[in-house]
Amino acid sequence: MTPQAPEDATVAVEGLLNHHWLCLLDDASCQAPGLIKHLSLGYGRGPHWSFWFTDTPGVYRLELRGAQPVDGYDWLAEFMVKYYPAPTEACFNGLSIFEQACRLGSAFRCRPAVPETAERGCACHGLHHAVRGTRFAELGEETGAPSARHDGQIPAEFFFAGILLLAYRQGCGSRARWESQDQWRVVLTEDCAVPEADGQPAIRRRKGDLDRDYPGFFLTDRLSRRILDGWSRFHGYSECTDARRETTGVEFFSDGQVLASAPAADVRRIAVEVECRGTGMAELPELPD
User: Fold this and answer.
1) Does 277 fall in a domain?
2) Which terminal CB of the chain, N or C, has fewer other CB atoms within 10 Å?
3) Does residue 36 form part of some domain?
4) Structural domain contains residue 275
5) 176 beta partners
6) Which of 1, 112, 119, 132 is CA-nearest to residue 59?
7) Based on the structure, what is the number of domains in the chain?
8) Does residue 224 sit within a domain?
9) Residue range(s) defining the domain that contains residue 53
10) Chain-centre distance for alpha carbon 162
């Protein structure tokens, strides 16, 4: 059999993920706390999905960075996990001043679908109607995600939480690994400010201040476990085992433009690997480092 090309693997991943999420959203139990309320598929640097959960005020984003065939699996896909917090959330204050200004600015002034277009889905995001007839009313005046018009203007590293790897072998099982740090911490080496813009006041921080203190692992773990739970239910996996590994992490230093890093004894880098398979199936190969 001819090996699958990376571009073919990426198409296969996108198609299977879309199919599995549509099946889950058609299940009435998806309205349970902690599960998907709305789902959006978009394209930028690659396919990406946005998630509105029933118990989370912010919006998650999962970006497919690429996929390829690997030994023992049909494909191995790599995703970037991001989280757009609501301004009322504690973790909003852990964003850098540039991320905060972005989240409060025009890029996120994206309203949900109006009634006359809602039956065709949200014109901005293709939001799924988890409960028909609501017209996304609970989202208020903004979706909490960036508009497609401004999306490409947001730096790729903004709102970053962690990385998720997912490997799949048809008829056998899957392995997932997600990695992040308990803190993504950035210390300023120079004074830094974001000028007044978009009707928002200027934001200033001084040399030595923390510019970013984002709970990367908590956010990555929360999304990854929910995705893997739905993935396992969709495929009927009955056996799951997981392992956790912690190592010393790093902190970053910024002059407002350039980042430098150094080991930090009080920052932990955390990786969780989970194997899920059908009853009686053999163990799957470990994921490559």
Assistant:
1) no
2) N
3) yes
4) no
5) 166, 274
6) 112
7) 1
8) yes
9) 6-174+214-244
10) 8
Would you say 170 and 160 are in contact if contact means Cβ atoms under 8 Å apart?
A: no
pLDDT tens profile 109-160 = 877 755 444 444 443 444 444 444 455 666 767 889 998 888 888 999 999 9
Nearest residue to 38 (alpha-carbon basis) of 17, 60, 19, 16: 60
Report residue 238 CA to chain centroid gap.
26
The b/e string for 35-58 (b: 16+ C-beta within 10 A; e otherwise) is: bbbbbbbbeeeebbbbbbbeebeb
Name the residue among 286, 77, 78 with its Cα closest to residue 162.
78
- pTM to 2 decimals? 0.87
Consecutive H or E run containing 244: strand 239-254
CA-to-CA distance for 122 and 18, rounded, in angstroms? Answer: 17
Beta strands 184-188 and 239-254 are: parallel
Query: What letter represents residue 209's amino acid?
Result: D
Strands 203-205 and 73-84: unpaired
With tokens 């600015």, the residue in question is: 105
> Parallel, antiparallel, or unpaired for β 259-277 and 203-205?
unpaired
DSSP-derived letter for residue 68 is E
Identify the CA nearest to 123 among candidates 147, 140, 154, 150: 147
27-31, 35-39, 269-273: least confidently modelled range:
27-31
